[in-house]
Amino acid sequence: MNTLPLLLYAAAGVAYAIHFARRDSAIGRAATTLLLFGALVHTFVIGMQTMEVRHLPFANFSRAVSSFVWLLTLSYLYLELTTDERSMGVFILPVIIGLQLIPVLHPGVERADPVLDSPWFWVHVSSLLFAYASFALAGVLGVTYMLQFKEIKKKHLGYFYTRLPSLQILDIMNSRAVTVGWVFLTFGVIIGAVWTAQARTIAPDDPNLRAMSIDDPKIFVALLTWGVYSFAVFARRTLGWTGRRAAWLSSVGFAFAMVNFLAINYFVTTSHTFY
Amino acid sequence: MHLFLLGVSHRTAPVDLRERLDFSSRDLSAAAGAIAAKPSMSEAVVLSTCNRSELYVATTDPACAREELVSFISEYHHVSTPTFQPHLFALENSAAVAHLFRVAAGLDSLVVGEPQILGQVKEAYQTSASKRCVGPVLSNVFRWSFGVGKRVRTETALGEGAVSVSYAAVALARKIFGRLTGRRVLVVGAGEISSLTAQHLRAHGVGEIVITSRTHAHAEELATLVGGLAVPWEAMTSALGAADIVITATGSQRPIISRAQLEAAQGHRRGSALFIIDIAVPRDVDPAVGEIEQVFLYNIDDLQIIVEENLSRRAAEVERAESIVNDEVTKFMAWQRSRSAVPTVVALRQRFESIRRSELQRLEGKLGPLTPEARARVDEVTRLIVEKLLLEPTEQLKALPDEETQAAYTEAVNRLFRLQDEDASEPSKRS
After folding, report:
1. Which of A156, A168, A236 to mutate: most B Cβ within 10 Å?
2. From the CA of B254, how many Å to the nearest CA of chain A?
3. Which residues of A touch B (CB under 8 A)?
4. Which residues contact B83 (CB under 8 A, 6 or more apart)?
């Protein structure tokens, strides 16, 4: 079911790459159209899965990744359509395509767990997935900022200089994405704590719930990620850490977020293994 | 009707002569009107920029038009004919079309690919059109040229990249700050390039422009020119703290802005970017300033390198642009030929139609007993036969490869079918 969106994303990725290299606006429009179609089909897939399990398909790792990809695509499309700036597509599409491979290769089965049957849980996961999607955008914006910054600073105006938007625009977009992501991350973590406290009263012996503490790698790295982004938000406003420093922070933060979301979730975690 | 072009450009005439033959300082539409009123000419467009003065006309006799235009130029500018005649160039029909397309594409400009020329061509055309000095010949070729200019601009990188130091500086500022609206500029030392750069920045909507110079009168002079504010030399350090873009161009033998001075100013800037354009030789800004985070320091050599890279990039695009122009000239000439065949095609159709009608009329007696449906069928069948007979010759006539062949074919068709023979319009009388 996730294959068709993947194919459309891959086609859009190729079109974005050609658009970036040749700066052909017709190919750029085709890329956006393909991505819109991909997002539309993906929305349908997520909708079907929601009807199937009667809640958003988050409780299975693969489906959570698929939902994350869907949110990331929608966030990127929002950014592209509101700024009329397509050059980011070539950087964000590899992330979208790479992550969408996970649900295609390992579909997995969603298991209904009575512990998860709480609105707090769904708000917790939705918030964090949306926060990660914002951080993914901020991370890509940060990387492109650094590429552009390096060319201008070193006076080697070349490939990226002619293709990327101005440093100021990249910095503003990065700032917005980090702030939005940070708000959702903070909200999601708080809701997660509330849900844990509530769920413990329902299922006091659940091994996952018992493992929910700062010692758990998933929770520890999540708080570390929150720390990085909190510093990024604070440093921009009080220390004047804009531009390259902010770009660097958002890239590091995104690395933490992805390690937590993918690697730790898959190999290490003890508290978040509901599937 | 022929398209004829007579003019001078930076390729044929020195700047002092071009200045004397400049039409743009006076009423262009009056000049176009005066030319179009000459006996041998019916349409006129005057294209006059600092690099060219070109007169495009529609004429029945190019040789006569040339003479009339030469005497017009001489009288209009009060310049004796021998002074400018050796510098004139004249082109006719397809050569004139190709020239106009090259001009509109920016291929004939002094700085290849410069963007203003297409607007100037459009303006020249509109000025003449507003005075009703253009007809089908100039209207078609000029309108087509706008499309050529646009196509070259979108399909090639001919117009990309700044090709002057001041534009390169503005382009960089836009790449750092995005929109320049509201940005504060500090100009240290008033020179020609700093003045030009400040003017370009002003045109891009920057906010306050503060100017300081050791000689306050120079600062005030530039402030008046660019609509800025002149401040005393001693206020430079505080102005540095508030500026987003700094242009330095003093004659100082030693750097006037040090790293320590800038770092102190940066403390108040809370990480916002600072773009310094050091045009002075020797340099006004300590090169170590460029190492400060969020400070972008460019000197005159850095900007010159950008300009040269852009120029060589444009030169690499010339070939592609030329092939687009050639392609468009071929298309335009073919289109024009197909249009010039139209009167013959129309006459041929009228001739066949009149034969058809007169034959039907002649057979009126025999067709009389037929039912109205059958008569309508006969009418339809004869009409279709005529249509089919004419389809192939019409297509062939429109698609002939050159003007000479077309003239020969048109002449042959005219003679074969007696298209210009009034008596021939009533063939049934002779049959």
Report:
1. A168
2. 23
3. 148, 152-153, 155, 157, 161-162, 165-169, 236, 239-245
4. B17
- The CA distance from A166 to the nearest CA of chain B, in Å, is 4
Provide the 8-state DSSP code for B180: -
Identify from B175, B297, B298 which residue to disrupt to test chain A contact, counting A C-beta atoms within 10 A and taking the largest count: B175
Give catalytic residue positions of B: 50
Residue B227 identity (one-letter amino acid): G
Is A155 close to B270, i.e. CB distance below 8 A?
no
The rounded distance, in Å, linking the Cα atoms of A35 and A43 is: 12
Outline where DSSP puts E strands in B108-224.
185-188, 209-212
Distance from C-alpha of A178 to C-alpha of A226, rounded to nearest angstrom: 11
CA-based nearest distance A145→chain B, Å:
11
C-alpha B28/C-alpha B7 separation (Å) is 15
Share of chain A above pLDDT 70, in %: 88
B:149-188 residues touching chain A, CB 8 A cutoff = 160-161, 172, 174-178
User: B168 to chain A nearest CA, in Å?
Assistant: 11
For residue B123, what are the domain limits?
A: 2-155
Which residues, other chains included, contact B355 with Cβ-Cβ below 8 Å and sequence gap of 6+?
B427, B428
CB within 8 Å of chain A, chain B residues 301-330: 302, 305-306, 309
Distance, in Å, from the CA atom of B221 to the CA atom of B223, rounded to the nearest integer, reads: 5
Cis status, amide bond into B136, omega within 30 of 0: no
pLDDT tens, residue by residue, A2-16: 789 999 999 999 999
CATH number of the domain that B54 lies in? 3.30.460.30
- pLDDT, one tens digit per residue, over B44-69 is 999 998 889 999 999 999 999 999 99
Q: How far, CA to CA in Å, does A224 sit from each of A51, A217, A234, A256, B114?
A: 35, 10, 15, 8, 53
**pLDDT means per 10 residues in chain B (431 residues)?**
92 91 85 91 92 93 94 93 94 94 93 87 93 91 95 87 83 90 90 82 89 90 90 88 90 88 74 88 90 90 88 88 94 84 88 92 84 89 93 85 82 85 45 35
Residue B257 CB burial class (10 angstroms; 0-12, 13-18, ≥19):
buried
Number of domains present in the structure of chain B? 3
Q: Report ipTM for this prediction.
A: 0.80
Write out the two tokens for A234.
């604070």
Same domain assignment for residues B265 and B235: yes
Q: Are residues B193 and B280 in the same domain?
A: yes
Which chain A residues are within 8 Å of B182, Cβ to Cβ?
none
Quote the CA–CA distance of B292 and B185 in Å, as a whole number.
Answer: 19
Whichever domain contains B264, its CATH number is 3.40.50.720
Q: Domain check: are B147 and B183 in the same one?
A: no
Kindly state the tokens that stand for B392.
Answer: 């192939």
- For chain A, which residues make up each domain, given as ranges? 1-112, 113-275
- Taking CB atoms and an 8 Å cutoff, what residues of chain B touch A241? 271
Using DSSP, state whether A88 is helix, strand or coil.
coil
Residue of B nearest to A153 (CA): B296
